[in-house]
Amino acid sequence: NGAGKSTLLKLLSRITDPTTGRVEINGRVASLLEVGTGFNAELTGRENIYLNGAILGMKHAEIRAQFDKIVEFAEVAGFIDMPIKRYSSGMFVRLAFAVAAHLQTEILIIDEVLAVGDTKFQKRCLQKMQDVARSGNTVFLVSHQMQLVQSFATRCLLLKSGKLVSDGHPLEVISEYLGQKVQSIDLSRFPRKGKISGRFTSLSFTAATNTWPDSVAQGSPLTAHIEFELLRPVKQTDIAVTFYNSSNIAIFTSYWSDSNPRLDLAEGRHRFSIQIPTRHLRPDIYWLSLYLSGAHTDHVDSVNGLAMPPIIPSASEDKIVEAHRAGVVLLSCDWQQASN
What we know:
Layout lengths: L4 H8 L16 E4 L12 H11 L4 H15 L14 H14 L4 E4 L8 H16 L3 E4 L4 H7 L3 E5 L2 E6 L1 H9 L6 E2 L11 E10 L2 E2 L4 E2 L5 E8 L3 E11 L5 E6 L7 E3 L2 E8 L11 E8 L3 E10 L3 E2 L28
Parallel strand pairs: 1-2, 2-3, 9-17
Antiparallel strand pairs: 4-5, 6-7, 7-8, 7-10, 10-14, 11-12, 11-13, 11-15, 15-16
Helix pairs in contact: 2-3, 3-4
């Protein structure tokens, strides 16, 4: 936060003029920044589509050719002639993205405004952005969600205090970004839905003597430290950790109860740790989801999308750690030759 991302996008979108220097853009730009940018709340959805197209320099015939696709994508056909000030936030975001993505532009600039939409809509947006990129156009995306950046981007920029710190392949730049993590993540600040009887409060990692290392070589020890607070006593408490790779594929889930009896825990803070089997993880960026439950599968708390230190290739000659093998994990199997 405060690195200058949104300011940079406003400069590129010509919403804000630079105080010094200049911005050179080769192509027509459409942007989806803060919700409401470029829309007139008093006009209808139909009128705003044509207004935005005109602002982008499109002809009336060009906008009309894309109009039906925009309305279908935004799912606002029944409200297209209603003033958008009466739209819900979800309807507004759907229409705004549909306009930006379907009008004929060479450069599409998107801030983290997509976080407003539901999961189904976000997936459709990602698919549309990929379609735009495959057509030879540029998509400029700003996000704190490293899974999104890793799965979507072909080039990655890292900003710090308004300065460009790194520019290169997403895996390399994301690894550098994650290496700037603090000693632990404050999980108590994550939003929760509904009434909970406890909450995760902290996640940290140690490898050898390092707290939250920049990276960990395959086969090296890595421990995750999990803290949570119970607001009331919970019987038969269990903790689960699910590991995801950079393609958002769930690799495996480990439960406390896999090798230990469930616990009856009192109100207050509790600490647990888990040894992560890095020997079997391919070089990649991984993410965790934490789940806390009680008796009769009673849900206590859960937190998703937590980054862990990247796994890098080991210098070992052991064949199990060869990074070029296909698959999502690296496992050793027993082989035998059958007698004739």
